[in-house]
Amino acid sequence: MFFILHDVLHAPEQLQALSAHAEVDADLMRQVGEEAGKFVGEVIAPLNREGDEIGAQWKDGTVTTPPGFREAYQAFWQAGWPALSAAAEDGGQGLPAVLEAMLYENLSAANHGWTMAPGLLHGAYECIKHHGSDALKARYLEKVATGEWLATMCLTEPHAGSDLGLVRTKAVPLASDAEGRFALSGTKIFISGGEHDLTDNIVHLVLARLPDAPPGPKGLSLFLVPKFYEDGSRSLVVCERIEEKMGLHGSPTCVMRFDEAAGWLVGEPGKGLNAMFVMMNAARLHVGLQGIGLLEAAWQKADAYARERQQMRAPGSASKAGQADPIHQHPAMRRILDAQRAWIDAGRLLAYRTALELDAVKQHPDAARKTAANRWCTLVTPVLKAAWTDQAFAGASACLQVFGGHGYVREWGIEQHVRDARVAMIYEGTNEIQAIDLLVRKVLPDGAGSLLTLLNDLAADLPETTNSATTNQALAQFASFSTEQLIKSTQADGASPELPYWVADDFLRALALLLMAWAWVHIAATPGAETDRWRNAQEGFWRWVWPEFDMRMAMMQATLASE
Fold it and tell me: How many Å is the Cα radius of gyration of the chain?
């Protein structure tokens, strides 16, 4: 982690260009990272197995989390971990976003179910900070920033999954209410942490529709409804049940009913999605980090097992006939492990770079640099979310294969990673929606102008090393395809409106592979990457992962030709 952060990305030098982080150096970042790893390893990781086996329990509207979860969370927020990157004036520590990214990658690897609880905190903090009234900020901002109170994001309804325009929850002004509150009525589903015993209060951020609101997404407003009000009374929000899920048993996924629950408007009427997307975009980077963390955890288990488990002589082995070798020496196992390692290391570089760019967007003094940072975040975030959660599931399954039959039983713990990873492909916008968002909303509207600028920036930033020519050629190929074929085909007279939707998934995956190639060229050019650990992963990328790029390009070209 520190090799990527310090040696490859030169994070301290980048951060010191920002006035808010002028005093952040490598020693401080290492100290925070090591303390985070120690806390996660000693306090959070030991709860993973029991949290999965016992799970959250619901009874009469009350949810009890697995043994040790509450105590661990109380220690977590009191130690200041949720407040790492929140502003000091809001009770936070004002540290760089990349340190928070590292923390949540570790948390996801150690105990995904527990990590679901604080996973939305930073997004909720940003939402209230930028869109809440002064009164709401005074009442809730510091509590959320520090993590003393947890928060939810209440979007989905039984009849409306990804189509938020179908939301029916109503918000009606409360007559004679001195605070100008609204009564919210409706049902929300798939609400992570909608009810629990981890904190003394829960802050619900809820999408609802005012009486005079137009239909569709433009008619949605955002409201804040707490579990408890300042006078100690409880709001009319009821947890009807929790879902029985494939994985994440330690995290209560709730069905929440709002029975004329009193809440405050956040931001402007009809601008609820604008306010909520602040929360969702932060969550999407964190979900990408979940994918990286879960794949790292699966890889560590598989690598350790492969070095201990002995089966048959490996091809070319010096062992005597009849003797067995660790399965780590068998090419089939090395191929699995090296390919997943390639995804982890490249994904980590891209995610940490994205976190660095988030701080640049907010604080860099140069306008052009801020524009470039925003371009990176806009285009790369959906790629991280979709490609690395896809790979977390596929890669965890591949790592399970290393165990053979032992991987399919619970004793070794690898099967939990497969189950837990699956949902990350679905929530915070399904991966198909991420692909549509990337191509239809972010690439096509400006004729791929922003994408071409990003690709040119990547090409200009390539060091001269092995595979840099291959990467440069692929960047040029993708740029040419995007403008000469994709844009022209989708904008041609009589073009099917479905065309971009047919190729969106392949487009995102091809861009993910390009970004990985760029990342691996940079890693290979960094002193210290000559060791077997880095060389094996690099070879794993170019041999077992990179060839998919040509396949994705061929699939898109075939689709364009057939329409």
Answer: 24
For residues 129 and 90, is the Cβ–Cβ distance under 8 A? yes
According to the model, what pLDDT value does residue 327 have? 83
First to last CA, the chain: 45
pLDDT reported for residue 127: 93
pLDDT of res. 279: 66
Tell me, which fold does domain 2-128 have in CATH?
Answer: Butyryl-Coa Dehydrogenase, subunit A; domain 1 (1.10.540)
Domain 150-272 is found in CATH 2.60.40.10? no
CB atoms within 10 A of CB 377: 19
CA distance 247 to 497: 37
The alpha carbon dihedral of 275, 279, 281, 284 has a sign of negative
Looking up tokens 């086996």 gives: 53
Q: How far apart are CA 365 and CA 298, in angstroms?
A: 41
Long-range contacts of 175-183 (CB under 8 A, 24+ apart): 177/262, 179/135, 179/264, 180/264, 180/265, 181/262, 181/263, 181/264, 182/208, 182/210, 182/223, 182/262, 182/263, 182/264, 182/265, 183/260, 183/261, 183/262
**Letter for the amino acid at 47?**
L
Query: Any idea which residue has 């340190």 for tokens?
Result: 99
Residue with tokens 């070879």: 539
CB-based burial label for 431 (10 Å; 0-12, 13-18, 19+): buried
Give the catalytic positions in this structure: 428
- The span from the CA of 76 to the CA of 115, in Å, is 11
Got the DSSP string for 532-557? HHHHHHHHHIIIIITTHHHHHHHHHH
Q: Is 18 helix (H, G, I), strand (E, B) or coil?
A: coil
Which residues, in sequence order, are CB contacts of 113 under 8 Å at separation 6+?
48, 51, 52, 66, 247, 248, 249, 250, 251, 420
Which pLDDT belongs to residue 492?
86
Tell me if residue 79 falls in helix, strand or coil. Answer: coil
Q: Where are the beta strands (DSSP E) in 252-376?
A: 253-266
pTM metric for this prediction: 0.95
Contacts of 426 (CB under 8 A, 6+ apart): none
b/e code 464-475 from CB counts within 10 Å (16+ = b): ebebbeebbebb
Q: Look at residues 553, 99, 540 and name the one whose alpha carbon lies nearest to residue 346.
A: 540
Element housing 39 (H / E): helix 26-39
**CA dist., res. 14 & res. 301, Å (int):** 34
Query: pLDDT below 70 — which residues of the chain?
Result: 161-162, 278-281, 563
